[in-house]
Design brief:
It is a single chain. Helices cover about 40% and strands about 15% of the residues. The chain is an alpha/beta fold and about 325 residues long. The strands form two sheets. It has a seven-stranded mixed beta sheet, with helices on both faces. The radius of gyration is 21 Å and the shape is elongated. The chain starts with a helix and ends in a 12-residue tail after the last helix. It comes from Calidris pygmaea.
């Protein structure tokens, strides 16, 4: 017997509700309840410029630098030198102009299979381990996991995430610093300033294939619909956080790969941390790691699970110490 239109609509609605409940149940049951803050024994130390092991500091300790720069690096032996040269040239000149300005650069070697660690150590030897530190992870955690390990080992009052490819002009740190300043007064000393490429979107679309453009718009829609509504470019790897904001967000973060930026900003929104979005100069760097199709699907799944896992209570906004 054929169903009437109203019966068909009711059936489809019931099916949709069933599927949503099923997805919610899967998201809840498969969730790892607490973020992975465990360090392997080898990751509790860094090698200084003299070749000796020193214990890594903790973000729970009082800050001793004005700025920490965290550079996640996976197989970046070719591109890392350009970024480090530009960053350290800027930081050294700034320190000469203002001796009260102190900094550190933390290169997080995320289980690289090439000479990334060796390349980074040359900068440690040149500038000293008080200014440049290399934190090597036993195995690849993903960009989000690498950034978190660097952030949790930082000494700065402010902490900058910066990609190893140097796609963002490092001097644009002054723009994100201004964005952070404009958010004052910071509630509970927490604020975040995000570099943004949104103003370059039209030019980038013209250079992309139709399929990649479609994937990009789909991803942006899912970010807006499920997680973060106020930031147009969540994925730019140039973000500046106050120390307290970094502690609260990164100790709660669960996702360690491509979609970690979205969870980071989602957590910030939930904690009512003020967020600024600031246009920065950005250049496509040869050798940039393109996001393959299957990674887009994984990111879409992660976006859905971010929303559902916090909504169902599988994930909690808790601050934990790492071990």
């Amino acid at each position: 017997m054929a169903l009437s239109l109203s019966e068909a609509v009711a059936l489809l609605a019931a099916l949709a509700v069933f599927l949503l409940l099923l997805i919610c149940m899967i998201a809840y049951v498969t969730a790892v309840k607490m973020p992975n803050l465990h360090r392997h024994e080898e990751e509790k130390f860094f090698v200084n410029a003299e070749g000796r092991k020193e214990a890594v500091p903790s973000i729970h300790d009082p800050p001793t630098k004005e700025l920490s720069v965290v550079v996640p690096s996976y197989n970046e032996e070719d591109r890392l030198p350009l970024m480090m040269d530009e960053a350290l040239d800027y930081l050294e000149k700034r320190q000469k102009r203002d001796p009260s300005f102190t900094y550190e650069v933390i290169v997080v070697n995320d289980g690289s299979k090439d000479q990334t660690e060796k390349v980074a150590m040359k900068y440690c030897e040149k500038y000293g381990s008080d200014k440049v530190r290399v934190l090597s992870l036993v195995k690849n955690r993903g960009k989000g996991g690498a950034v978190r390990m660097g952030v949790l080992s930082s000494r700065g009052k402010k902490i900058l995430m910066a990609d190893a490819d140097g796609a963002t002009k490092f001097a644009d740190i002054e723009k994100v610093e201004e964005g952070l300043k404009n958010l004052q007064p910071w509630p509970n000393q927490m604020a975040i300033s995000c570099g943004s490429r949104a103003h370059l979107e039209k030019d980038s679309i013209a250079k992309r294939s139709y399929f990649r453009t479609l994937l990009m718009h789909g991803f942006h829609f899912l970010v807006w619909f499920l997680c973060v509504k106020e930031i147009r470019d969540t994925q730019c790897g140039f973000k500046l956080l106050t120390r307290e904001a970094a502690l609260r967000t990164f100790s709660t973060l669960h996702i360690e790969r491509w979609a970690f930026d979205v969870e980071l900003l989602y957590i910030a929104q939930r904690l009512r941390i003020p967020i600024a979005e600031v246009a920065v100069n950005w250049t496509e760097i040869e050798g940039s790691k393109l996001v393959p199709f299957w990674s887009w699907l994984q990111m879409g799944r992660d976006l859905l699970f971010i929303r559902l896992r916090y909504m169902t209570g599988a994930w909690q906004l808790e601050t934990r110490k790492y071990d």
